[in-house]
Write a sequence for this structure.
């Protein structure tokens, strides 16, 4: 490579970078990453499907229209047939419609649990990281206690505390488990920010404490938390499935949810594995999509990869 | 009356289970309005800690600060956190060493300048933006309008330091403390930044405390120079005096260690032997004694007192006689 080329490349790189924020330059790199594109495509399709599912679904997911074909004694379940490409479920409801509408509930559970967990974690992490001292100690010991319990077990216990399990109790159980993860992550990066030069420089300018925390420390600490939340979206969906599978999910199965569908068919799994396979594969693909996005986002937001 | 009077400033770092460490040991100096004062010394001599103590930026726990820092008639060490916060940035500005890490990476330059203006001068955002543009222009940043919306990583090192100087001077403080402002920059940019600071300080009548290990910076900028060693001022003199006739063996050694253009080719540099780690505590004599070519018996038993010798302060038992050549040659 000649000197002239490198120089030109440098100038191009400089010109490209003009007026570009951290987020914008991360986006620039993400667009070129095939892994991110795969993840984003999966999630894009998932979100569009779930939003449009009430119109896309050929039948009412709660209507036992094929109930006549269900013969409990002989373990017969409606097979795929014209108008019902995936057949029916144990109650004779159209399986394709239930899959489509189920994506909506799955999305609600994932996003809801992540948002609540993120909010709780942001509050606790900011308190601990910004105030420090005894507040930090109290919050972090609380977080340590929560993290010392296995996540899934804790979620089961919380879900089991509700006398009437519902969609909301599932979301709450999963989100509470995520709070300490977010809190610890944010607190760590807040502490790093507190010791950073630019926070010292801002302090040396007499900037108020509130501005230091919310303008200088918090925005610089959010990178890892954003990434973590995309990963939590994936685990939340899987955990919701696990809760439903164990009968701690929403008992009202008129509105389907993938995890719950997976739980419902445990008894017929040996004779009709496809009833479990469809929701399971969908859960895996969606979780994979979120994970791929999260991983590439983490790389793109890492300041060491910049320039 | 001096703008800043530092008297017997002592900073002791204390930690449970460890020996307390005295980073700054009874430092005295004055800064007159508009004057530029240098604090010179090698790493670990307490220059940065002195500046942080003046600004009230040392952690509350672990650092015990005694003595007095009087700014414009106010004892800064007795102010509450809130009062000190109101003064920082408005009365006392500070420029740090590394211009990249001293700017907030996620906020455009413009907002970082307006932040101080809004905070201390109560300007509305729009008015502050106009002022910010003027400030960037004043510190020699080309195309200030565009730069206002850019992020720190998009500016060159020199440009970033200019921006930091603009931010520090935004509220026209009467005193600016610059902690090695040119260390992270390359040599040509160093010269530009120094001449910019010199110019601004003269224009605005700002007093400047220049903290540096670089005697070249001192030679170009400072009216008065304090040479620190082991947390104490060992020699204080006007710039010309100090460079023409260094009396303390440490100052003498520092000057002798600088390569000279007029020296014959092949002449070896004369380093100061040993390192700061060789210091002895001041209570047992002179901290510099183990490294000092002029050391006498008395240097390791009696702490040298600060003596006033014809307008210069000197802390030495056996000062260099003016005119002697550089310290003895040490094989490197």
């Amino acid at each position: 490579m000649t000197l002239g080329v490198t120089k030109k490349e440098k100038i191009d790189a400089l010109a490209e970078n003009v007026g570009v924020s951290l987020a914008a330059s991360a986006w620039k790199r993400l667009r070129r990453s095939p892994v991110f594109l795969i993840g984003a495509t999966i999630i894009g399709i998932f979100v569009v499907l779930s939003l449009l599912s009430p119109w896309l679904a050929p039948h009412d997911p709660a209507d036992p229209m094929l109930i006549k074909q269900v013969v409990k004694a002989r373990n017969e379940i409606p097979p795929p047939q014209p108008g019902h490409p995936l057949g029916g479920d144990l109650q004779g409801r159209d399986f394709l419609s239930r899959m489509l509408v189920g994506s909506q509930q799955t999305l609600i559970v994932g996003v809801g649990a992540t948002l609540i967990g993120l909010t709780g974690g942001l509050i606790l992490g900011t308190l601990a990281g910004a105030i420090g001292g005894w507040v930090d100690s109290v919050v972090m010991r609380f977080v340590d206690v929560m993290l010392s319990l296995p996540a899934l077990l804790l979620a089961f216990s919380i879900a089991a505390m509700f006398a009437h399990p519902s969609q909301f109790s599932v979301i709450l159980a999963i989100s509470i488990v995520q709070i300490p993860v977010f809190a610890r992550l944010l607190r760590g990066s807040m502490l790093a920010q507190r010791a950073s030069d630019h926070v010292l420089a801002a302090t040396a300018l007499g900037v108020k404490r509130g501005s230091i925390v919310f303008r200088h420390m918090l925005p610089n600490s959010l990178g890892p938390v954003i990434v973590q939340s995309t990963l939590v979206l994936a685990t939340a969906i899987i955990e919701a499935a696990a809760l439903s599978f164990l009968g701690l999910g929403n008992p009202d199965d008129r509105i389907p949810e993938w995890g719950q569908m997976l739980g419902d068919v445990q008894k017929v799994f040996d004779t009709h594995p496809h009833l479990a396979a469809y929701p399971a594969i969908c859960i895996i693909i969606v979780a994979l999509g979120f994970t791929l996005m999260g991983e590439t986002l983490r790389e793109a937001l890492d300041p060491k990869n910049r320039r | 009356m001096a703008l800043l009077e530092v008297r017997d400033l002592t900073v002791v770092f204390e930690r449970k289970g460890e020996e307390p460490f005295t980073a700054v040991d009874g430092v005295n100096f004055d800064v007159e309005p508009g004057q530029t004062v240098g604090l010179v010394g090698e790493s670990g001599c307490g220059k940065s800690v002195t500046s942080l103590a003046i600004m009230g930026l040392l952690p509350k726990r672990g650092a015990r600060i005694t003595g007095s820092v009087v700014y414009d008639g106010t004892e800064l060490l007795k102010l509450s956190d809130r009062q000190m916060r109101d003064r920082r940035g408005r009365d006392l500005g500070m420029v740090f060493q590394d211009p990249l890490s001293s700017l907030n990476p996620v906020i455009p330059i413009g907002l970082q300048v307006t932040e101080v203006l809004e905070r201390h001068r109560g300007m509305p955002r729009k008015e502050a933006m106009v002022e910010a543009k003027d400030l960037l222009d004043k510190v020699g940043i080309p195309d200030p309008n565009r730069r206002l919306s850019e992020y720190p990583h998009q500016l060159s090192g020199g440009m970033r330091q200019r921006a930091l100087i603009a931010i520090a001077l935004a509220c026209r403080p009467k005193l600016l403390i610059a902690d090695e402002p040119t260390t992270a920059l390359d040599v040509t940019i160093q010269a530009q930044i120094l001449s910019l600071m010199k110019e601004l300080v003269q224009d605005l009548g700002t007093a400047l405390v220049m903290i540096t290990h670089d005697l070249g910076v001192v030679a170009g900028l400072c009216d008065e120079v304090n040479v620190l060693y082991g947390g104490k001022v060992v020699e204080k003199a006007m710039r010309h005096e100090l460079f023409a006739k260094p009396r303390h063996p440490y100052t003498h050694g520092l000057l002798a260690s600088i390569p000279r253009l007029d020296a014959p080719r092949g002449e070896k540099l004369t380093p100061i032997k040993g390192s700061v780690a060789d210091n002895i505590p001041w209570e047992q004599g002179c901290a510099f004694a183990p490294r000092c070519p002029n050391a006498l018996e008395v240097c390791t038993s009696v702490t040298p007192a600060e003596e006033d010798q014809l307008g210069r302060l000197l802390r030495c038992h056996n000062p260099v006689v003016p005119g002697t050549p550089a310290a003895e040659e040490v094989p490197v």
Q: What stands out?
A: The interface with chain B takes residues 17-22, 196-198, 200-209, 211, 215-216, 219-220, 303, 306-307 of chain A (CB under 8 Å). Residues 95-131 of chain A form the longest helix (37 residues).
